Amino acid sequence: MKDIHCKSLSRKMSDYVDGSLDLKTLAKLKSHLKECRPCVLFLETIEKTIGALGSLKKGVSVPQEAKNHLREKLKSVSRRG
Ligand SMILES: [Zn+2]
């Protein structure tokens, strides 16, 4: 079932945008994104959020507050399944 992948990968996505994802998981995530539109859209949302923050403070890492916000989003997506 795809849902299982989406759930576990959506948790990895915050690591992905952090740049702290290991290569193995990164490859898994990328191949999943090729066939899972909802996850692509979800990742785009995350990247937009990060991008918006990045344009406010260039070169500064994502604040903890924003990470918490993302985590909340990730949770709600997992619930939607
Ligand atoms: Zn997915």
Structural overview:
By secondary structure, this protein is an all-alpha fold. It has one domain. The chain is built from four helices and no strands. The radius of gyration is 13 Å and the shape is globular. The mean pLDDT is 79. Bound molecules: zinc ion. The site of zinc ion has 8 residues, from α1 and α3.
Question: Total strand count, please?
Answer: 0
For the sheet with most strands, the description reads: none
What number is the mean pLDDT? 79
- Number of H/I helices: 4
Binned strand content: under 5%
> What are the distinct ligands in this entry?
zinc ion
Helix vs. strand class: mainly alpha
Regions with little confidence, pLDDT below 50 for 5+ residues? none
Blueprint (SSEs and pairs):
Layout: H1 2-18, H2 23-35, H3 37-56, H4 64-80
What is shown here, in short?
The protein is built from 4 helices and no strands.
